[in-house]
Amino acid sequence: MLLMPSATVFVGSLCIMVLELTAGRLMAAFLGYSLYTWTSVIGVVLAGIAAGNFFGGRLADRYTPRAILIIVFGMAALACGIIPPLNRLLGDAMLLLAISWPLKVMLHVTALLLLPSILLGMVSPVVATWALQQGLRTGRTVGDIFAWSAVGSIVGTFLTGFLLIPVLGTAAIMLAVAGVLAALSLLFVVQDREQAPLALLLTAVISLLAFVLYRVVPLAPAQTIDQAGGEVLFKRESQYSHIRVITDANAPHMRVLMLDQLAHSRVDMRNPANLDGLQQYSYVKFYGLFTDMLGTEKETLRTLSLGGGGYVIPQYVAANWPGSHVEVAEIDPAVTETAMEYLGLPRDHGMAIVHLDVRNHIDDLLRRQQLGEDLGQYDLIYGDAFNDFTVPFQLTTVEFHQKLRTLMAPAGVYLLNVVDVFSSGRFLGAELATLRSVFPWVYVFAPGSALGSRADQRDTFVFVCALQPLNDALMEFSDTPYRRLSDAEVEELATRAGSIILTDNYAPVENLLAAVTRAGGALGDRERLAGKLLDRAGALAQAGRLDAALAQYRKVIALDAPRPDLAHNNIAALLARQQKFDEAVQEFRAAIAQNPGLIPAHMGLARALLVLGRVTQAADSFQVALERQPDLVANPSYVELARSIMEREQRLRRLQQR
Q1: Where do the structural domains in the chain lie, given as residue ranges?
Q2: 463-475 as b/e: b if 16+ CB within 10 A
Q3: CA dist., res. 424 & res. 498, Å (int)
Q4: Top-level CATH class of 275-514?
Q5: H-run or E-run covering 242
Q6: DSSP secondary structure, 589-630, as one string
Q7: Are 310 and 257 in contact (CB under 8 A)?
Q8: Which of the two ends of the chain, N or C, has the fewest CB atoms closer than 10 A to its terminal CB?
Q9: What is the pLDDT of residues 35-82, one digit of tens each?
Q10: Could you say which architecture CATH assigns to the domain 518-657?
Q11: What is the pTM of this model?
C-alpha cells in the first residue's frame, strides 16, 4: 500500500515549503527583503534538497528506511525548532558585522536553512525505497511518490502564505513544523519498536539541546527597548511586514513606525498633522512645503497617497485643507489599524483608504473612469511606497507612470521619493529616464549632504513630475536640506544606468539597487554594533568604570553609525561626573552639532557652563532647549536648573552693581 509512504512524503515536502517561506520572513527583521536575501534562501534550500536526495538514496540502500526516517524526522524537528533563537543569535552576532553584506546574508541563511533542507531532502528517496520494498510496480510507485511530494509543496506554499503567517506568526510556525516532524518520528517508533532505544536517545538529545538554546536565547524575550533606544509600544507581524511602534528616546512626543528594518514614519503625537518638528524626516517636510506651494490659492485639494505608513502627509492635507478629498492606497490593513491605534490617526478620519496594491488600485480607478464614472483628477500624488531594500518594480515603470499621468489634473504634480547612493545612482538614473519619458517636466531634488561628503552613502531623493512647468522662484525650500539639481547634474544622473527606461517587461530594480542594499545592510550592521557598544558602555558606567565606558562610547563614534549624537552626549555626561567640565562642554556641543534637537545635550551643556561660571551661555543653552520643547517647564529637574541659573544671574547682577 502506498498510503503511508505517500502521506509521509506529502508532509515532508509540505514542511520544507513552509520552512522556506517562513524562514525568509523570519530573517527579514535582520536582513530585510532584498535580492540577496531571497536568492540566498532559494539557493540554499535547493542545495540542501539536492544534497539530501544524494545522501538519502545511499542511506536507503544500506539501512532500514523506517529507522532512517525516525532519525531524519527527529533531527529535522530540532533543526527547525532552533531556527527562531538561532536567527536572533546570528542577527545580533558581532562576528558577522565585519564581513561584507552579501556574504553575511549568505552565511546567515546557510546556517539557518542548510541542515533542515538536507534532512527533509532525504525523505523522498528513503520513502521511495520503502515503497519499492513492498513489491509494487517501479514506475507507478516512483511517479506517485514524486506526485505527492509536489502536491505537498503546493499545499505548503498556499497554506503558509494565505493562512499560517497571518494567523500564527513566523516563530510559532517554526515550532509547529518542529512539532509535526517530531510527531512523525514518534509515529515510526510506534510502528518499529526495535528502534525505540534509538528514538528515546535521539529524543533526549533533541530535548536537551532545545532546552539549552532556548534558555540562552528566549523565543520572545521581554524586550521593551528598541535598538534605537526608544520604548517599544507595539509589535505585530502582518501578512506583509514586521510592524513596530517605538518612541523616540530623545523626543518622547515622537513615535516611529518601523516596517521590518525601515523606520517608515515619524509622528508627533502632540499634533499628528505637524511636519515642522526637528525630528521629522526631511523628505516629509519637503512634501509638506510643496503642498503648501501648490495649495496656496486652493480651498480644497484632491490628493492620492501611494502608501499610507504613519499617515502623516494625508493628515497634514486633511488638517490644512478641510473638505479635501484625501485618498490613500495602503496594501496592509494592519498598518492602517496600527496608525489608528498608536499613531494618532482618528477612526473617523474621513479619508478614502483602500487596502490594495497601488498598481491594482490605479487600474481600478482607470476602469471606473472608462465606465463613465466621474472621479475627478488629482492635484497631488504622493509616492511613498519605496524603501532601500524593497522596491515594487511594478511601480517604477513607464506603463505605471502613464496611468498616473492620466489621473493627474493639468496643473497636478507627482512627488516620488527614492532611496539610492548618489555616487552610483543607477536606480536613480533609470527612474529619472523613465519619468522623463512620460512627464514633460521632471525636477530632481537631493539633500545637500548627498552631493558632498555623503555621496557614497544612501540618501532619500525626490522627483517632482508635472504636466506644466513650475515656477522656479518658488522651488527654493530653505526650510529643508533639499536643493534642486542643476540641469548639468540631472543630465549626468540620467546616464548613470545607461539611459535604461524601466518597463513592465524589463525592470531590473534589484540589480540597479545592489549598491544601496550593500550600503543599507552595512549601515544596519553598524547600527546593531553601535547598539551593543552603547549597552556595554551603559553597564560599565553603572558599575563605576567610567574610563572603560568612555572608550566604548568613542568606539561608537568611530563606527560612523547613525546617531553619534547619543555617544557624544553620553561621553559629555561621564566627563561631567569626572569633574572635567571643559571637555564635557566640547562633547555636549558636538552632540548638538550632530542633532540640534537633542534636548538632554542642551540641558547638560547648560549645567556644565553653569558650573564653569559661564552663566550667560548657560542661560542661552537652557533657553534654546525651552524653545524647542516648551513642556520642559513641567519637568522638576529642569525647573531646578532654571532656578539655579536665575539665582546665579541675580548674584552676578548684584556683584556688578557693587
Answers
A1: 3-216, 275-514, 518-657
A2: bbbbeeebeeeeb
A3: 12
A4: alpha beta
A5: strand 242-248
A6: HHHHHH-TT-HHHHHHHHHHHHHTT-HHHHHHHHHHHHHH-G
A7: yes
A8: C
A9: 678 888 999 999 999 999 999 999 998 888 888 898 899 889 888 988
A10: Alpha Horseshoe (1.25)
A11: 0.68
